[in-house]
């Protein structure tokens, strides 16, 4: 019996448990940020920022959340640039 085989089995199981705990923690924290962000849409606070942060956090473990976060960030940047161009507010310019 090779001792290297017996050592890797518990280490692998330990890594699986750590990865599962990490995934659960990320899911809870990301969901909490999204829920808080939704609440902040009607309450004072940066609701959209919290929602995007929650999606970004969820995206570290879940590919679907990563794709959604990337898409929403692109829409947010496009909207921001459209508003800046429409109202002509640029940093460093005086009117």
Write the layout of secondary structure elements.
Layout: H1 3-40, H2 47-58, H3 63-87
Helix pairs in contact: 1-2, 2-3
Measured between the Cα atoms of the first and last residue, the distance is: 81 Å
State the helical fraction.
Answer: over 70%
Structural class of the helices, strands and pairings? Answer: mainly alpha
Largest sheet: none
The total of helices stands at 3
| Net shape | elongated
Number of domains: 1
Q: Helix-strand pattern, N to C?
A: HHH
Low-pLDDT sequence parts: none
**Number of DSSP strand runs:** 0
- Determine the mean pLDDT: 82
Give me the Rg, rounded.
21 Å
Pfam families: PGPGW (PF09656)
Keywords: Membrane, Transmembrane, Transmembrane helix
Transmembrane segments: 20-42, 48-65
Protein name: TIGR02611 family protein
List keywords for this structure.
transmembrane helix, TIGR02611 family protein, Uncharacterised_PGPGW_TM
Structure characterization notes:
The chain is mostly helical and about 100 residues long. The chain has one domain. Helices cover about 80% and strands about 0% of the residues. It has three helices and no strands. Helix 1 runs antiparallel to helix 2. The chain is elongated. It starts with a helix and ends in an 8-residue tail after the last helix. The model has no long low-confidence stretch (mean pLDDT about 80). It holds the Pfam family PGPGW. Keywords: Membrane, Transmembrane, Transmembrane helix. This is TIGR02611 family protein. InterPro entries: Uncharacterised_PGPGW_TM.
